[in-house]
């Protein structure tokens, strides 16, 4: 049976901070907050790096504030996945190179030199996590408008080349990738890219749950099953994933996790239903059903 780790797609979501899950003396204290999270979970996905490039000093603090063995999975910056970017989130020197200095720029509006330098800074900022042995996978979530066309496979080729030396996990949001799944799976395996299995609502524009890893590492990302909010429009990202998993649904996810564990050496289950306590409660519930206790360091100096 594979090693199984369960966590959430953020530990600092504003609705989680306001929910009361963190004790009063912890909620607004970054170091205590991360240590408190690590008392319950041995892994987490960094969501903020999708919206803005990570900073070296912040990644260094993440490494220092977590115990040996804890793993961070880092979400790729939006300009690396075809989502474009928010101009005001870029450092000033890169923002100066943009055709507009405010608002959202589509991918085609972003100068190539900005994207290239963003890649350089993204990799540089991950150094503290890599050196500490605390970097898991890099998560590349392709936008729903990206279909399995020749240019998309060329993108995957370039992605594999650029990220050599890193574990890269790819998530498809367009269900058409799974109508050609046999070919897509072979391509992911050839390129050494890990497939992200998705738990999503029964919606015609949501991907199906395909529990087939393409590397020795399997990833299951759980978005909730709110079909009404899947399409949007959304003012906040969490609105799409506003869902509290029931016990029956968690039992189903436990079985899905075991299916992946029979095919891989390591399985990461990440809950992306980040509204309030929904994600942490689902993650703790799944850990209970899988017989996973607290991390081994939970009662040590990092508790």
Shape assignment: globular
Indicate the low-confidence ranges by residue numbers: none
Give the helix level as a range of percent.
25-40%
Mean pLDDT: 95
| Number of discrete helical segments | 12
How do the helices and strands follow one another from N- to C-terminus?
EHHHEHEEHEHHEHEHEEHHEH
> Over the alpha carbons, how many angstroms does the gyration radius reach?
19 Å
Strand order of the largest sheet: 1-10-9-8-7-6-3-2
Strand content range: 15-25%
Distance between the termini: 28 Å
Largest beta-sheet characterization? 8 strands, parallel
- Number of β-strand runs: 10
Structural class: alpha/beta
Could you provide a short overview of the structure?
The chain is of the alpha/beta class.
Describe the structure.
The chain has 303 residues and is α/β, with parallel strands linked by helices. Helices cover 35% and strands 17% of the residues. The chain contains 12 helices and 10 strands. It has an 8-stranded parallel beta sheet with strand order 1-10-9-8-7-6-3-2. α9 links the parallel β7 and β8. The longest helix has 15 residues. The protein is globular and about 50 Å long. The model has no long low-confidence stretch (mean pLDDT 95).
Question: What are its keywords?
Answer:
12 helices, 303 residues, eight-stranded parallel beta sheet
Secondary-structure topology with pairs:
Blueprint: E1 3-8, H1 14-17, H2 24-27, H3 30-40, E2 43-46, H4 56-64, E3 71-75, E4 85-86, H5 92-95, E5 104-105, H6 112-125, H7 127-131, E6 135-142, H8 150-162, E7 167-172, H9 181-191, E8 194-199, E9 217-222, H10 227-230, H11 247-261, E10 266-271, H12 278-290
Helix pairs in contact: 11-12
């Amino acid at each position: 049976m594979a090693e199984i780790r369960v966590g959430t797609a953020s530990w600092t979501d504003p609705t989680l901070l306001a929910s009361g899950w963190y004790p009063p003396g912890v909620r607004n204290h970054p170091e205590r907050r991360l240590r408190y999270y690590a008392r319950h979970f041995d892994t987490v996905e960094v969501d903020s790096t999708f919206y803005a490039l990570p900073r070296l000093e912040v990644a260094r603090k993440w490494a220092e504030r977590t115990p040996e063995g804890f793993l961070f999975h880092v979400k790729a910056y939006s300009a690396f996945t075809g989502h474009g970017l928010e101009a005001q989130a870029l450092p000033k020197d890169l923002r100066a190179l943009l055709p507009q200095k405010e608002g959202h720029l589509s991918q085609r509006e972003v100068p190539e030199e900005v994207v290239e330098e963003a890649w350089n800074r993204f990799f540089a900022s991950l150094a503290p996590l890599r050196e500490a042995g605390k970097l898991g996978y890099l998560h590349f979530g392709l936008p729903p408008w990206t279909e399995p066309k020749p240019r998309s496979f060329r993108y995957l080729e370039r992605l594999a080349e650029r990220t050599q030396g890193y574990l890269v996990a790819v998530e498809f949001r367009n269900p058409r990738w799974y109508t050609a799944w046999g070919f897509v799976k072979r391509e992911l395996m050839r390129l050494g890219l890990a497939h992200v299995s998705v738990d999503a609502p029964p919606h015609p524009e949501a991907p199906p749950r395909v529990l087939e890893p393409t590397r020795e590492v399997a990833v299951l990302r759980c978005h909730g099953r709110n079909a009404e909010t899947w399409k949007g429009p959304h003012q906040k990202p969490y609105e799409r994933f506003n869902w509290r998993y029931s016990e029956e649904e968690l039992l189903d996810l436990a079985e899905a996790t075991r299916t992946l564990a029979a095919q891989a050496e390591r399985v990461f289950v990440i809950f992306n239903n980040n509204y309030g306590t929904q994600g942490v409660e689902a993650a703790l519930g799944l850990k209970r059903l899988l017989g996973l206790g607290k991390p081994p360091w939970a009662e040590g100096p990092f508790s």
